[in-house]
Amino acid sequence: MMLSDMSVEYLVLLLGNYHYILLASVLALGVTVILSKGTKRGKSGIPGSLGIPFLGETLSFLSANNSNKGCYEFVRLRRSWYGKWFKTRIFGKIHVYVPSVDGAKTIFANDFALFNKGYVKSMADAVGKNSLLCVPHESHRRIRRLLSEPFSMNSLSKFVQKIDCMLSKRLEKLERDGQSFVVLDFNMKMTFDAMCDMFMSVTDASLLEQIERDCTAVSDAMLSFPVMTPGTRYYKGIKARCRLMETFKGMIACRRTGSRHPEDFLQSMLQRDQYPDNEKLSDEEIMDNLLTLIIAGQTTTAAAMMWSVKFLDEHQGVQDRLREEQLSILRNKPNGALLTLEDLNNMSYASKVVKETLRMSNVLLWFPRVALDNCTIEGFEIKKGWHVNVDATCIHQDPEIYKDPMLFNPSRFDEMQKPYSYIPFGSGPRTCLGINMAKLTMLVFLHRLTTGYMWTVDDLDPHLEGKAHIPRLRSGCPITLTALKNEHN
Asked: What's the angle, vertex CA 425, arms to CA 181 and CA 434, rounded to 5?
């Protein structure tokens, strides 16, 4: 991406008393081009370019993230220069991209012992120091255990019914209106509303709009230059985070002083006020993790559902087989009945469609960790403090693991996968807490879409949305629905 095409954010940053960054950027880009012509190996044996101190290849990374190819283009390009293993410097930190199953096993199996979570500063600042994504080992186990209640089977059973009812009504309205709608936007709103209801019993339209607007600004700041310059994504995101914390504080205060106590996640946390410290969360921990759960659950799940629509549209045979399975489930239920966990457990082929969608879309491109000490991974020396990124995208697209990896083929999951070869939710003690919620949400969506409708994709643009920290189509995948006539319609 050329400098003249960069976002206003970075122009503001460069011009706002950061002239030295402009000079450093030119030098960094020049050094990158020169070094890219040959494979450079340091003492670690890992090829790659670290660029100039601190800045490294940060601007190249941000430029890729702002482009319509997405930030993984930064990784893909360096693989073409250096091979599968390479190192770089981003935001002042050395990053090593780990492309193998054995490397993933080494890192995930040694979480907390040899490695800890490692996010770029902007991402950590966005979610907060008390977020499950950022806390050290001693806090992580306690917070994860106390956050697990919304993801229990009992809670998820209620969630399935809520989101099924919400989804059915909204799809029916869209079909009646007969207008094209953007799948990504639709699912972002649906998942957001469902989670706010589940976590905080928030259903008021104006409050939902306010919280969603601020959550979007926080999400947009997660891969940005971490400097508080007015007008930048980082600045807007941190300001939005402050507003959200005030909103959450107000909710907590009302719960403690008022008589209304809805049964939800927030209330289950506040009921522990009198518990020992190791059996409760502080208000700051509650608020940071509310924000984390909402953003992580909304953006990744909505993007995955968008990709499922695209893949199914491109593979009519898969769509037909999926619809056949889902109609058989629908026919065995009373007319108008909502889905149950038992129904979802019977969706064998749909579950494979979900797995293949997650493998192909890689909504979580890689999983970052920090080395807690010097160590070796597959013969490569890793220094204490280096970031090691388990490259899920590279593993999921490896032809030695998956035959024809770029072909959407749910039936490949008829066979058991090798451990650590399928890691859309990570693995080990830091496996994504919302793994079951995400899968169930996708199954409900696929059921209602395929049993109720046919659809046409109205924009086939394959380019990705710029500035997004997860891969999403720039178009958002707009579709038009046509009602499918069957005995339940």
From this structure: 70
Q: Which pairing describes strands 115-117 and 453-457: parallel, antiparallel, or unpaired?
A: unpaired
Chain mean pLDDT for the chain:
88
Q: Taking a C-beta distance cutoff of 8 angstroms, is the pair 170, 162 a contact? A: no
What DSSP state is assigned to residue 469? S
Q: In degrees, to the nearest 5, what angle opens at C-alpha 92 toward C-alphas 364 and 390?
A: 30
> What is the phi-psi region of residue 481: left when phi exceeds 0, alpha when psi lies from -120 to 50, beta otherwise?
beta
Q: State the first-to-last Cα distance of the chain, in angstroms, to the nearest integer.
A: 49
CA–CA distance, 467 with 456 (Å, rounded to integer): 27
d(CA 57, CA 202): 42
Q: Rounded CA gap, 434 and 304, in Å?
A: 14
- Identify the H or E element spanning 318: helix 316-331
3 state DSSP class of 454:
strand
pLDDT tens per residue, range 176-199:
998 899 999 999 999 999 999 999
Closest by CA position to 107, among listed 379, 371, 432: 371
DSSP state of 111: B
pLDDT tens sequence across 297-356: 888 999 999 999 999 999 999 999 999 999 999 999 999 899 999 999 999 999 999 999
**DSSP, res 464:** B
Angle, CA of 249, 254 and 256, to the nearest 5°:
95
Question: What CA–CA distance (Å, rounded) separates 465 from 475?
Answer: 8
68-91 pLDDT tens trace: 999 999 999 999 999 999 999 998
Locate 479 and state its tokens.
């579709």
The sheet carrying 387-390 orders its strands as: 48-49, 86-90, 93-98, 387-390, 367-371, 115-117
**Residue 343 token pair:** 């129904």
pLDDT at 44: 61
d(CA 94, CA 137): 22
Residue 110: CB atoms within 10 A of its CB come to: 16
Question: Residue for token digits 């460069």?
Answer: 14
